[in-house]
Design brief:
The chain is mainly alpha-helical. It folds into two domains: 16-89, Winged helix-like DNA-binding domain superfamily/Winged helix DNA-binding domain (Arc Repressor Mutant, subunit A); 95-258, GntR ligand-binding domain-like (Four Helix Bundle (Hemerythrin (Met), subunit A)). Helices cover 64% and strands 3% of the residues. It has a two-stranded antiparallel ribbon with strand order 1-2. Helix 1 crosses helix 3 (61-73), helix 5 (112-133) packs antiparallel against helix 8 and helix 5 packs antiparallel against helix 10 (222-243). The longest helix is centred in the first third of the chain and has 25 residues, at 14-38. The termini are far apart.
Length: 261
């Protein structure tokens, strides 16, 4: 008795093939990151040449190149051109995180009000943590930034230096995720509020509040730092709402985080 022939399976749809290829590239990208970490490589170090990587990971050339392009988009490597070129390790920056965050928030239909509410929730905790954890170097940087802000009270740089103070406070918290999130929020909101500016009265209010926050941080007064930052963020949001109500309804766009300072 003859055995029945094995059924012929239909060819995999092109769309599914593309998805499988993309998944393989993503898995390979993760393997490359693991190897970078395990080999203690850092910014400026080069990855092996393409042929060596093909042999190491046993993948198709197209899969390797797609994985490398993905890592470049994430800020993990930079692909140099020409003789002697190839993948060079970099370090993902705050802007890379902010860009990914902005893309997700755009599809969540997030507006500026939501970002300000997030700031109100975390900024007081960041200030309290900074009061507990700030180093001598952190305090010196904060004091220098506040002194610069006072000199720029009437200048166009005021808003950017103001953001810089909050960034420094975030990194002074001793928790790098606070610093990363605070800085990313500033990258997202910078272009959304561009051109609005603070009135002279609001600038003076901001300076007084920041001075009190810094004094509390300097005195290691976590409760006081939290209280002063709550006053500052609440007042700032109220100011923006009264001056430009439509601004708070502005939607986050992916491009918000891709603009240079």
């Amino acid at each position: 008795m003859k055995s029945s022939p094995s059924p012929v399976l239909p060819a995999e749809p092109a769309a599914n093939f593309g998805q499988t290829k993309a998944k393989r590239a993503l898995v390979l990208a993760r393997e490359i990151v693991e190897d970078i970490e395990s080999n203690a490589q850092g910014p400026g170090d080069r990855l092996p040449h393409e042929d060596a990587m093909l042999a190491r990971y046993d993948v198709a050339r197209a899969t390797l190149r797609e994985a490398l392009r993905f890592l470049e988009l994430q800020g993990v490597i930079h692909l140099t051109q020409g003789r002697g070129g190839g993948p060079v390790i970099t370090r993902p920056q705050t802007a890379d995180f902010a860009s990914s965050m902005a893309l997700i928030l755009q599809f969540m239909d997030t507006d500026l009000r939501a970002l300000l509410e997030l700031r109100e929730a975390i900024a007081p905790t960041v200030a309290a943590r900074a009061a507990e954890m700030a180093t001598v170097a952190d305090l010196a940087a904060l004091e220098a930034c506040l002194a610069r802000l006072e000199r720029e009270r009437d200048g166009p740089e005021f808003e950017e230096t103001n953001r810089r103070f909050h960034d420094l406070l975030g990194w002074a918290s001793g928790n790098s995720t606070f610093g990363l999130l605070v800085s990313a929020l500033h990258l997202l909101t910078r272009s959304m509020s561009e051109g609005l500016g603070y009135s002279a009265q609001e600038r003076e209010t901001q300076l007084r509040c920041l001075g009190r926050v810094l004094q509390a941080v300097r005195m290691r007064d976590a409760v006081g730092a939290r209280r002063q930052m709550e006053r500052l963020t609440d007042g700032s949001t109220q100011y923006l709402a009264e001056r430009s109500p439509a601004l708070l309804a502005q939607k986050v766009r992916w491009g918000n985080a891709n603009r240079e300072a």
